[in-house]
Amino acid sequence: MDFNQELDARGLNCPLPILRTKKSLAGLAAGQVLKIVATDPGSVKDMQAFANQTGNVLAASGETDGEFVFYLRKKA
User: Fold this and answer.
1) What's the mean pLDDT in 10-24?
2) How far apart are CA 44 and CA 66, in angstroms?
3) Per the CB 3.0–4.6 Å rule, which of 4, 15, 48, 52 could disulfide with 32?
4) Considering the chain, what percentage of its residues have pLDDT values greater than 70?
């Protein structure tokens, strides 16, 4: 999936991945995509909840070798 910016949240535990995601999204224009890479298993539920609460779209997510990857599209 194409993305406009990447956030490396590896090694960070809750709530830091979400806080950094929020900060990174603030710098993007509506419709742009932020790729987040995290290692905290709790980030899976956190990212979904964050998307639901903020209106941003969790366009895709997955796990590879203990790393969780999320693609968030900033709401219009």
Assistant:
1) 96
2) 12
3) 4
4) 100
- Expressed as residue numbers, the domain containing 22 is 5-73
Strands 33-38 and 5-9: parallel
Domain count, the chain: 1
Spatial CA neighbour of 1 closest among 73, 51, 75: 73
Catalytic residue, candidates 10, 12, 14, 15? 14
Give, for 54, the enclosing helix (H) or strand (E).
Answer: helix 43-54
CATH number of the domain encompassing residue 60 = 3.30.110.40
- pLDDT of 76: 87
Asked whether the CA dihedral 8, 35, 75, 17 is positive or negative, the reply is negative
